[in-house]
Amino acid sequence: MHRQALEMRERILGPEHPSTLVIVNDLAWCFYRQDELEEAEITCRRAFKLRVKVLGLEHPETKISLNMLFGIYSNERYSLSGKGWSPLHIAARDGLEVVKLLHENGGDSTLRSGVGLLLLIIASQHGFVQVVKLVPEYDADINVPNNDGWTPVNFASLQGHLEVVRLLVEKGADINVSNNDGWTPFIGASINGHLEIVRLLVENGADINIINIKNGWSAVNGTLSKGHLDIVRLLVENGADVTIPNNDGWTPVFGASLIGHLEIVKLLLDKDADINITNYKGCTPVNAASMNGHLEIVRLLLDRCADITIPRNDGWTSAKAASINGHHAVVQLLQRGAVTTEPNTEE
User: Fold this and answer.
1) How many domains does one find in the chain?
2) What CATH number did the domain enclosing 37 receive?
3) Across-strand partners of 211?
4) Which domain holds residue 28?
5) Contact by Cβ (8 Å): 131, 92
6) Global confidence as pTM
7) SS3 315
8) Which of 102, 244, 256, 301 could form a disulfide with 107 if both were Cys (CB 3.0 to 4.6 A apart)?
9) ANK repeat ranges (predicted)?
10) Long-range CB pairs of 34-38, under 8 A, 24+ apart, other chains included
11) pLDDT tens-digit profile of 23-48?
12) Structural domain contains residue 91
């Protein structure tokens, strides 16, 4: 009944009408009395946020919703549901003013959620700069990871929150720490294309050749897989090792040739990348490019004297790999050698 009344009032009066706000809160209370605690939390949080927006933080009805949230989060049955969120965790997700209000009401910024998320980690993950500024005042450790090994700076770097990363670095965040999957802030920012964060981390001493301990990927190797030319250039200009292979034997030039990033291949070759390097299957960059039909990369590799006679471990030459995969223009190019004036006629 409450749900139907809510839908009607939202449709007729709008979601922020005082009458609608009353029904939202009543619906949350109904869920709470029926022990549907997750539905109660979702609905009550909605009521709280709407009342903060419409009525303000200090309004008595806003505090009613706040007290209900406290009741839900302190409910033993809710904690046992695996959520374990504290009010301040919700505050970090929803914004600074709520954090201040809950702190004044006795929130604890050091509480962990059921999945190990600290208040500071949540704020960093969602880009709440002002929350990140506030939290260290409450003695939250900026280098404490969650259960998966993610620290605030790791989350912020991965998500592209430049100002949060800058603030955390200024406060002494460890920028070379890795999570349980081997991701460091530097690798995460590089792979996700966050150029200015990568630049900031480099300027603050990030290990430019740090390796993901799980898969052997360096920042260069991971970045080129996404085609982020500007970041690859930045890394190379700052001394990144372009010869480091991942656990499958992929060096950066091999990966760029396989995937088809022509400008990255050029950049790496200009930095003396080994043009005939092989992966664990014996595949060279020209073999990989031929197999995937990257005509202009094959042309470039031939112009740079790639050895097209090196077979893979299964005996496939570059020409055979191109032929079997239907890349006839590549086959023709390989048969007569590099002709730099030949137009791209493939497919």
Assistant:
1) 1
2) 1.25.40
3) 218
4) 1-73
5) yes
6) 0.71
7) coil
8) 102
9) 148-180, 181-213, 215-247, 248-280, 281-313
10) 35/77, 37/72, 37/75, 37/77, 37/78, 37/81, 38/78, 38/81, 38/83
11) 787 888 888 888 888 888 888 888 88
12) no
